[in-house]
Write a structure and sequence with these properties.
The termini are far apart. The protein is built from 10 helices and 14 strands. The strands form 4 sheets. The chain has an 8-stranded antiparallel sheet with strand order 1-2-3-4-7-12-13-14. A two-stranded antiparallel ribbon has the order 5-6. Strands 8-9 form a two-stranded antiparallel ribbon. The chain is α+β, with helices and mostly antiparallel strands. The longest helix has 19 residues.
Length: 336
């Protein structure tokens, strides 16, 4: 936890060195993280906050996440655990594993971070393999699943210790971690985008945040270039996450294989749902439930969203070649 703790003195310095003021000042941060870029916008009200110090703290948190949870960083705790090493998990590793176990139980195995070998086999994990045989899928299914591990990541079934992959919630979790840090500084107006989004309060124009939902067609690889709709917040803090199969896929022998793998069957999903946008109390949950909707498909996703008072959703699906949308009653579509 040493890297995480280095951010705490920065927060203390920022608070100790602030001066009382009613002036609202906006700050913008950006950088590279998790194979892409991140953007953070926040307002300081009544405090003089040094942007450079906040940038340093944010980068420190993201570095801790990388050295703990990244499957691409070969020296991370996750990579060493997956390689078979005996790892003493830090607090962050324990926390995200515990969160993942709750999602696994809630979704009855549809969200399973211990299905990493399946994602690797289909070429959507930390390797480039693809099109495994049915026999291979069956053998991998027998050696996967969080039910093979206890709450401490120890094997409980025939010594099987499956590899882990936290990609289904890692970006949402990262956004929540940065938001929590900003909260510690007294920030209440923010947008944190680390691949997935957490937003709260108002934007620089003094209005609720607005977030575009991309049209989910193959070839739409530029976020924001072609929008299907725009969600508008109400000032409450929430995570807003879209999951879809239109950017991460490959095609062989005329058939498309999506990156959404159903860990219960071992195969990529094949249904009419093109993308799912979820609004939840935090970005970790929004990330998880957006993925969950993409696993279970349109009809089950509708039922799931409407059964939850804490969620809103926007589903885009294919209806005999025509793109259509469904929105839950509380999903606030902005009027242009």
């Amino acid at each position: 936890m040493k890297r995480l703790l280095t951010a705490l003195p920065l927060a203390a310095i920022l608070l100790a060195g602030t001066s009382c003021s009613k002036e609202l000042r906006w700050h913008e941060l950006s950088g590279y993280a998790q194979g892409g870029t991140y953007s953070v916008k926040f307002a300081s009200r009544g405090r003089s906050i040094k942007t450079d110090a906040v940038q340093q703290a944010v980068d420190s948190i993201l570095t801790l996440i990388d050295t703990t949870l990244s499957g691409y960083n070969k020296g991370s705790q996750l990579s060493r655990y997956n390689a078979g090493a005996e790892v003493e998990p830090n607090g962050m590793f324990k926390e995200i594993y515990s969160i993942s176990r709750r999602f696994f139980k809630e979704t009855e195995g549809a969200l399973d971070v211990a299905a990493a070998p399946l994602f690797d086999a289909w070429g959507f994990g930390f390797t480039t393999d693809s099109l495994p045989s049915p026999a291979m899928v069956d053998s991998l299914l027998a050696a996967c699943g969080m039910d093979c591990l206890d709450e401490n990541m120890k094997p409980v079934r025939d010594g099987i210790r499956p590899k882990l992959n936290f990609n289904a919630i890692a970006q949402g979790y990262s956004s929540d971690k940065i938001a929590a840090y900003l909260h510690s500084l007294g920030v209440t107006d923010m947008l944190v985008d680390i691949g997935e989004i957490y937003c709260e309060g108002l934007n620089p124009k003094g209005r609720p945040w607005r977030i575009g939902v991309d049209r989910p067609f193959y070839g739409n690889n530029t976020p924001g270039a072609d929008l299907d709709g725009i969600w508008q917040g109400d000032g409450c803090g929430c995570g807003v996450v879209t999951s879809g199969n239109y950017r991460k896929y490959y095609e062989k022998d005329g058939q498309k294989y999506s990156h959404t793998i159903d860990p219960r069957t071992g195969y990529p999903v094949s249904h009419s749902l093109l993308s799912a946008t979820i609004v939840a109390p935090n970005a970790t949950a929004a990330d998880a439930y957006a993925t969950f909707c993409m696993v279970i498909g349109l009809d089950e996703a509708k039922s799931f969203i409407t059964s939850r008072s804490d969620l809103e959703g926007y589903l885009i699906y294919d209806d005999n070649g025509e793109m259509k949308e469904w929105a839950s009653s509380g999903f606030n579509l902005a009027v242009e």
